[in-house]
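Ticket #4471: structure export looks truncated?
Reporter: QA, pipeline team
Priority: medium

Steps to reproduce: submit the single chain below to the structure queue and open the exported record.
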Amino acid sequence: KLMFKNSGDDEKLKQLLNANYSEADLIVYLHSEDPLISRAAGFALRLIGTPEGIPALVEALKNDDRGTRYNAEYALWAIWSHSGDDTVDAMLEDGKNLLKNEAYQDAVDRFTTVIETAPNFAEGYNQRAIAHFMLEEWSKAIRDCKRTISLNPNHFGAFAGMGHVYVRLGKITEAIDAYKQALIINPNLISIAEAILRLRSRTQTQ
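Actual output as written to the record:
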């Protein structure tokens, strides 16, 4: 049975999980009918999951239990943020910090370095798309969203981001289509569902 205590120390917890469970074990637990077990599995996969676990986590986004869905989503983001190269991952995190500090052009430059170093790392393009969006560089943001999706077709964040850009461009049909794709993958994106309703209402009143 899946049992562990979250001490708040991720590194120690990773060691404990790796010593006691395989990723295959955690995927089995993710499908448990006991929500406490499926939630714990999702949490564990956030720490030690690999791309091998992505299909099960995407499926878990539609789990009946809200906590399991939540943990599955965060596990996906964690896995997507790991390139397999510690140097690239550090650059990605540096770029994210630049985004948080509103240093958007510096973030673009850092994510570009990530992409040049790891051209098949989808999250580099996704994060650069966010930076381009903040700089109102719409065509560049769309390009990076599309590249993200080509590398990672399950990337609901890139579909949602592309929808945001299309809204700014006044392309309502394209925005709704992009938002729908995000919701097909991850039905838990309440703000995206609400955005679709607003856009449909806008088109009906025009």
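Status: closed, not a bug. The export was complete when the record was re-opened. Leaving a note from the reviewer for reference: The chain has three domains: 10-80, 82-137, 154-206.
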